[in-house]
Amino acid sequence: MHYLANPARFVSLADRLLPWLAAATALAFLVGLPYALLFSPPDYQQGETVRIMYIHVPSAYLATMGYLGLGIASAVWLIWRHPLADLAAVALAPVGALFTGLTLVTGAVWGKPTWGTWWVWDARLTSMLVLFFLYLGYMALREAIEDPDKAGKAAAILSLVGLINLPIIKFSVDWWNTLHQPASLLRRDGPAMDPSMLTPLLIMLGAFSLYFVTVILWRIKAAVAAKRVDGLRRARAHAAQRARTAA
Amino acid sequence: MSEFFAMGGYGAYIWPCYGLTLIGMVALAGWSFAKQRRLTREAERLKALGKESRQ
């Protein structure tokens, strides 16, 4: 962990991993998509709409895991001031926001033919909408405050307060009487799903996760490079000014 | 083939979901990849310039 806190070392490791990660992502989708769209059977209750689940569930998984990552990165940055943790948090926010948005939209489009409505103010749906606004709020706060250190601190505190939403999302289907179905994957008695659907879902979860790691590494790399560009530009401006004063 | 696209009458729900997810994920990946490549090259260019001016 400490070893990777050095941005240069992190970038060189990321550069070694990224071609493999990108290839593995493509391969996982190449296997997962035909499985999800063609080879898996229609559900006896939901019919063909069950295929939306193969992108809805991985999106929701990454939306919440991404926020957990954002919270952990923010805490690490606030406590130990590891510069890479702050860059990781900034990299995570738009990716998490995308997957939260996709979760909400694919859920709504699935809900229309299945529940007969696009939206209900049910605990699971509402807490996911709150998650979306937490991501947007995090990004807006960083943009709104000019001093990067102050912006980072304010946004980090917001993200930590927002962590309370994660257990609410997870247990919303147990605590409240929701329209959303309870968990079928992470249950004490094991997954309540037929292998013919569990297998494509697990492949899609893997594909989405590989994609997530690949994009996050690209974004952290971009942030590290942006800092270097900034530093080098400043050094050049400084040197030019010194040359002028000397002359 | 047309049966596959009809998705038992639910094609109008399923395909927009997959289409939007695809567009969103490809756009984010493309943006992120292009950004890191552009900034990495810019950093290398500035570093090379700095070395030149010091010589």
UniProtKB/TrEMBL annotation, chain A:
Residues 22-180 form the Cytochrome c assembly protein domain. GO terms for cellular component: plasma membrane. It holds the Pfam family Cytochrom_C_asm. The keyword Endoplasmic reticulum does not apply. It is found in: Cell inner membrane; Membrane. Keywords: Cell inner membrane, Cell membrane, Cytochrome c-type biogenesis, Membrane, Transmembrane, Transmembrane helix, Transport. The keyword Cell membrane applies. It is a multi-pass membrane protein. One of its GO terms (biological process) is cytochrome complex assembly. The chain crosses the membrane at residues 20-40, 60-80, 87-111, 123-141, 153-177, 197-218. GO terms for molecular function: heme binding; heme transmembrane transporter activity. NCBIfam families: ccmC. Belongs to the CcmC/CycZ/HelC family. Required for the export of heme to the periplasm for the biogenesis of c-type cytochromes. This is Heme exporter protein C. It comes from Rhodothalassium salexigens DSM 2132. The gene is ccmC.
UniProtKB/TrEMBL annotation, chain B:
GO terms for cellular component: plasma membrane. Keywords: Cell inner membrane, Cell membrane, Cytochrome c-type biogenesis, Membrane, Transmembrane, Transmembrane helix, Transport. It is found in: Cell inner membrane. It is a single-pass membrane protein. One of its GO terms (biological process) is heme transport. The keyword Transmembrane helix applies. The chain crosses the membrane at residues 12-34. InterPro entries: Haem_export_protD_CcmD, Heme_exporter_D. Pfam families: CcmD. Required for the export of heme to the periplasm for the biogenesis of c-type cytochromes. Belongs to the CcmD/CycX/HelD family. This is Heme exporter protein D. It comes from Rhodothalassium salexigens DSM 2132.
